[in-house]
Queue: 4 jobs
Job 1
Amino acid sequence: MPTVPRSLPDDWFGPLARASARLLMLDYDGTLAPFREERDEAVPYPGVRETLSAILETGRTRLVIVSGRAIDDLLPLLALDPAPEIWGSHGWEQRLPSGERHLLPAPGESTDALAQAQSLAESHGLAGRCETKPACLAVHWRGLSESETAEVRERASALWRPLAENVGLELREFDGGLELRIPGRDKGCVVEAILSGAPPGAFAAYLGDDLTDEDAFRALGSRGLSVLVREKSRASAASHWIHPPEELLAFLQRWAQCDQSRP
Ligand SMILES: [Mg+2]
């Protein structure tokens, strides 16, 4: 994959302003909120909540948060009232703006294997670094030194790889940790689900920073704006790249203005 050198085109909001329907899909950690050593302190950049609320208030955009976090983990950090639509745990769970929830069923064998992986991690000193969520178990190493990170990565990989291979689970690294996931859902599936329900002529955008967002960028393809939100560009399937938080906030504010100015 090529690196993404391009900023957004100057007139990107022209097609947005003219579109009959709008879809704004946003990753959370690293995109709307800066990383924190303590995961439960990762609140949005200043101005983000207000701007998202302004977009939600108009009711003219289907705004969706798409995260690897569990929804219950995300809601208090996002702290939007009313809360928007959220797809959590890499697309295994969905919360509608009404508060209605859907959890996709996972195979029992895979769920048992995740429970076993958690017991293994806990009995090998990783309990405090583990996060359990629907269809996924993660170990986090953000804030550790290079040598400590390598040690946690190796220990978790050694414990989980045999289980992953036996039962067919995915072992994937993300920015700050390693995840053992039940396959079959990812952020690309979420983008497909959202686009499949969109009216013709809808303007869609997906903003994300992490390797797990690449599935979403690929799923969106040429059907919308795919935007990598990072300090430094990297190889990505995204078509554009912006710096957080200034360019991110400018993007969201411009989106809100388009929504507000429409009759
Ligand atoms: Mg992220």
Job 2
Amino acid sequence: MINEERIIAEFTELVAVPCPSKDERMEADIIYRKLQELGMNPQIDEVAAQVGSSVGNVWGILKGNLENVPAVFFEAHMDSVAPTTGTTVIRKNGILYSDGTTTLGGDDKAGIVAIFEALRVIKENNIPHGDIQVCFTVAEEIGCLGAKFLDKNLIKADIGYSLDGGGKPGLVFNAAPRLVELEVKVIGKSAHAGIEPEKGINSIMLAAQALAAIPQYGRLDEETTLNVGKINGGLAPNIVAEETSFVIDMRCPKNEKLDQLIEATKQVLTTAVEQGGGVIEINVVENCPAIYIDKNSKVVEVVLEASNKLGLNTGLQGTGGCSDANFFNGHGLPMVVLATGMEKVHTTEEFLEEEDLFDLTKLVVEIIKTAATK
Ligand SMILES: [Zn+2]
């Protein structure tokens, strides 16, 4: 049902356009036109000003011909990592490569192409479906800025799929950590180190005591990590150091568990610093919301049923990274990440097996069909 040559042609067309993060304008124009051709009422949102990009996220919606079925959402990001000056695709033994001077751009054009071909298949074959919404984001590779700043009121769907994971199609990522940073400042009192050190309070020593009081660091358990990644303090060897700051990175897919860890860590640090006569300031920065989707939820049920029907090697997995899907979940849309088959991403050796691209497209079609039965 899918048109393999059309998929390869569209992939070649999309990766030929330069699209570094924050300068996705040319790519967005092509995508906008394709959505228009599909009758999907394209819209470019307002994130460009906040992101500092040449264009916003591109949205489209294909109205359903069925009622009372879940509205399905697909997303992929438009930007690619450098060098992405426009890729020349080399086809060899069923595998797509760049010519070695750029990344292939399969991250994430594989996702975009699979979504477009699936939409065409649905329309050409008059397959019954609910509403299908799509969004193609900017600046994913530099902190998921397009997804982060988008207006969540634009989301009109019940279940979501991000086509941006590593591994073979069929693999589904239903957990990814929430990521917070604790920016900690320890304030002591400066004094001359040789003449009157007793008048000072040494913030470096207090910070050391506070850090030593943290009971565990690195991998705390299979889903939780804590890392002290940065420290800075003191002015000169002959001055009792007045100020020392450090940053702790903490990750866990379970919100409440991470909240507890944050509180416990703040407590330990505060006690140690105050016992030494210092003052502590702790700023909690929320960097990325979690993906934590139950395996019995509808979004998972639909994709597993779809991929089993296709005979794909299906599996559920967690990931330690942060991608657009984290932010969509933060905006309230349950979204899992689908593996696209892309390999060696972020290098000029990136490649993509044609068969994986075809499987991914079939999976999107099958997700739409399966959702229509729910
Ligand atoms: Zn990606």
Job 3
Amino acid sequence: MYRKNETGYNEGVTKEKLIGGICMRRYIMKEKKETETIICNGCGKEICVTDGIPKEDMLSVEKRWGYFSGKDNEVHRFDLCEDCYDRLIAQFVIAPETENGE
Ligand SMILES: [Zn+2]
């Protein structure tokens, strides 16, 4: 009798947790879709992304460092806003190549 009650109680808890889990997941997915942001690694500025399109253009870098580096096979990722990009390239000895889009 005691064991049966215990089992019933446990099932109840499991169902509650499962329903809670599904609700939580739906909420997160919805929130992510509507208010996703990209954070600039240079200054911490948040750029809103609406329907997958950032409101400001950004530089996104992903680099897997190879065997002949001090970071053997590490992947580094960062995003920079336009202001931080301009500050970065201002330090270059040779300016980046540029061309106008058609
Ligand atoms: Zn920035």
Job 4
Amino acid sequence: MTPDSGAPPSPKTTADTLKSKTSLPVIVAPMFLVSNPDMALASCKEGLVGSFPALNQLTSQGFEDWLIKMNDGIEKLKKDNPGQTIGPYAVNLIVHKTNPRLEEDLALCIKHKVPVVITSLGAVPDLVKAVHAYGGIVLHDVTNIEHAKKAAAAGVDGLIAVSAGAGGHAGTRNPVSLVNEIREFFDGVVVLAGCLSNGHDVLSAEVMGADFAYMGTRFVATKESSADPAYKQMIVDASATDVVYTSAVSGIPANFLKDSMAKAGFDVEKLKKEGAAAGKLKPMNADGEEAKAWKTVWSAGQGVSNIHDIPSVEDLAKRLETEYAEAKEELAKKLGIAPAKPKAAAPKAPKP
Ligand SMILES: Cc1cc2nc3c(=O)[nH]c(=O)nc-3n(C[C@H](O)[C@H](O)[C@H](O)COP(=O)(O)O)c2cc1C
């Protein structure tokens, strides 16, 4: 993303650089068992940041195949679409001792110069330096201020503020309060996550002080996602009250669709009362199989209320762009700011 100087880019420049490489300030969030290179490339083609978690491939070798596919794919998109903004792509790494592949996967990110590395759980200065050395940037996802400060101290370029109601391992913080507090000590890239489903939400994230919107659940329900068709349909049919925040599935609080939990043998009403305090449980489904987090129990955020279809990534991205432009116009009207008019033609010189 920056020249290969090894020196950390200034925070402001990084936000501007990343924005200049996208046509809409949207990062399609990495999602376990859902994101894949086709979905990421379709996102990049529309000028968004596409992504996937390294662990969506079973082995580091498979992960390297995906990186090659991404780099070749991006190059081809640029060649086939001259003048069009092709977004950069991102890879999510779980930086924790429970991830035995971290070292190998990071080495592959360095080898293939992954433009954006999204770290979860641990923010490590050595990793940040290694990514900066080849010109990449690091965004780190956080749900609270303690972790945000640690990540900022580790030198990350950006913080992803995962607010209450988000899909996956959501936080409990209100987005307004979380972004405001992060902005008090951090002037790098701020990305807001949680229930952002349309172009109006993207502009809202920016108005709140974020640079980018991070969209997960909205993209589970796309044609290209690897999610089970029944999972996509469940998102379309669900409303926010169908989302349960519980630690019962994986031991860490996350948001799941209640019907998928019930099918997997969980007592949903009980879990709703217990909330994040349930602790990991091991219910069996009707066939006596243990419910597997993410595979049989499906995660989604409260944004499901605003998701009504399963479009292709291309159609969704184009719609987001239109809605974003409309939102800007509506905001300008509300604020009494005249929308930018096309430049008036220069007055003709009087005839001699
Ligand atoms: C099915 C699913 C799987 C997810 N897997 C991951 C993951 O592997 N790594 C990660 O950093 N975040 C993961 N997330 C969280 C997303 O990256 C993102 O923070 C979240 O989806 C944003 O909120 P939203 O779903 O309300 O848009 C996942 C989210 C979902 C819905």
